[in-house]
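Before going further, it is useful to explain how the protein records used in this thesis are read. An example of such a record is reproduced below.

***
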Amino acid sequence: MDTKYKEAIEIAKLYHKWQMRKDGTEYITHPLRVATFLKNYWFPEDVLIAWVLHDTCEDTKLTIWEINSKFWTRVWFIINALSKNKKPKNNKKLKLEYDEKKKKRKISNLEKYDNFEEYIDFRFHLYINRLYIWIIAEPWILFIKISDQIDNLSDMKPFSQEKKLRKIEEVEKYFLPIYIKAKNIFTVDLENTKRYNDFISLLQNKIKEVKNNL
């Protein structure tokens, strides 16, 4: 195992130290489990590092600039692409920012939205559109995102029936069409075409499995 990859794991363990999964396990088990999965497909080290650290900028105080100072630009690029706008009916800070901007009318497009929930939907769609563009620029992002979703779909026992259905719908309605559309990116690369076919098949099979177990 390379020194840089070990360093990334230690950083992830440090910053996710107090975070837990819904099933009560330490959060770090998720990135380490998926990293092992990606290693089986012989992805390069910078992809593994980006995966291990992919949630630190979203969920901890670690910044993308600190990551950039420690690792390669490609790692920064992938993490930045994967870091979505916060979700945030629970995000009190974002709600306060929204209310303040709405009141002061500093951002004109806020006036399109009658409430905070509509604004959150807008931010989510921005992320989806951006994700496709970033996948074209860096195809490794597709493999990382699919791996993340396969693992999350495998670990939904603590969720209510309603939330399980919502998660499945989100993947099928928003993400899967993007992945299928991205197929042409890999047509000139036989190795990645095989990976692509394997990953799409694994995701579709996982969706069917979860549906059958509902």
